[in-house]
Design goal:
mainly alpha, single chain
Length: 356
């Protein structure tokens, strides 16, 4: 159990991550303008003016600075949290994910090149023990129990999960503040889960990433000063895919599939729906269109802020449901979460006939 000094140290890490990200953003923005790393208004994004697309650099550097501070606190004896091997694996993978995304922001990699690099990252995680070996299906039917996966299927499902979440977060970055807010809410759900299973080093990663996400939101919420780009979304996607996976494992390598899916329900549902519809239309899964959830809510008559806040509310509702199923929270919190979702939905009631 965390003691007072450790709680204070974690709060210091949270604040340092948020402040470092915010302080770095003006410099990153200037750098993006000078090197013409600009995202133009287009079909996928709703920005109405050219916007710097390397905001992910501030996110990553804020995260890195806070981790260095965390290591200093640990070495000085103020933060006696043992750093597990998974801490270093996730940190290393997230660093690689950021640089892959940043390369894409600068050089515009092809979809297949991005997919190969993402798969290599997932393979790296799998080789280092972040993998799906056993899936628990007892939540569907008690007699099903758990299914032990052969190595090849373990690799396949791990690749699908990590690559899928990376791209799901990337695709949610279509409105100002949307992806960063979803990441922040998801991490708020993951932190109590990590604490409940005594994964304090993973909690340290979550807190640091949470700080970066809220620090970035200061400049990214509508109307945004800059966007995270692929560097930021790949970084966040790898972090969430691995930490959600690790936080959903309660015995050795057994994945509580429904918990992992609930925590990331919005981006997973959005990606699955879009790929399905594009496939039906005989188009590439990478083909840009306006089928995403945020686009359909905008079509219903909502403004950007109203759409983003509603998706935040949906995200927190499914996350709170996961916490309820894990007995980490009680029913009254679920009721409050439902009231919040209902209010956000009816505050700017959409024309449901336009959501197709």
């Amino acid at each position: 159990m965390l003691v007072t000094s450790e709680i204070i140290s974690i709060l210091i890490i949270l604040l340092s991550s948020a402040l470092a990200t915010m302080l770095l953003i003006p410099s990153i923005n200037t750098l993006g303008v000078n090197f013409q790393l600009i995202d133009q208004p287009g079909q996928r994004r709703q920005n109405t003016r050219p916007t710097v697309r390397i905001g992910g650099a501030a996110i990553f550097l804020g995260f890195l600075i806070s981790l260095i501070l965390g290591l200093f606190l640990d070495l000085s004896g103020l933060l006696s949290v043992p750093l597990s091997s998974k801490f270093w694996i996730v940190s290393a993978g997230a660093t690689c994910a950021f640089f892959i995304g940043l390369t894409d922001d600068i050089l515009s990699l092809s979809p297949w090149s991005r997919l190969i690099f993402q798969s290599a990252l997932a393979f790296f995680a799998w080789l280092n023990g972040i993998k799906i070996d056993i899936i628990d299906f007892s939540f569907i039917y008690p007699q099903l129990g758990v299914i032990i996966l052969p190595e090849i299927l373990s690799l396949f499902f791990t690749l699908i999960w990590i690559v899928g979440v990376i791209n799901a977060i990337n695709w949610m970055d279509g409105l100002d503040g949307l992806a960063a807010g979803i990441v922040a809410i998801t991490l708020l759900i993951l932190i109590p889960i990590a604490l409940s299973i005594n994964q304090y080093s993973l909690c340290l990663l979550m807190v640091s990433t949470f700080g970066s996400s809220i620090g970035f939101l200061r400049y990214n919420f509508y109307p945004s000063k800059l966007i995270m780009g692929d560097g930021g979304s790949y970084f966040f996607g790898f972090i969430l895919s691995t930490l959600t996976l690790l936080s959903s494992i309660f015995t050795e390598n057994i994945l509580s599939l429904h918990i992992a899916v609930l925590i990331l329900f919005v981006p997973i549902f959005d990606m699955t729906y879009v790929i399905f519809k594009r496939t039906l239309d005989k188009k590439s899964p990478f083909y840009p269109d306006r089928r995403h959830l945020h686009h359909r809510l905008l079509t219903s008559g909502r403004g950007q802020r109203s759409t983003v806040v509603l998706i935040y509310a949906i995200t927190q509702w499914f996350g709170v449901l996961a916490l309820l199923l894990l007995n980490i929270i009680k029913l009254p919190i679920m009721i409050i979460s439902t009231i919040v979702l209902t209010f956000c939905f009816f505050y700017r009631k959409p024309n449901l006939s336009k959501i197709k």
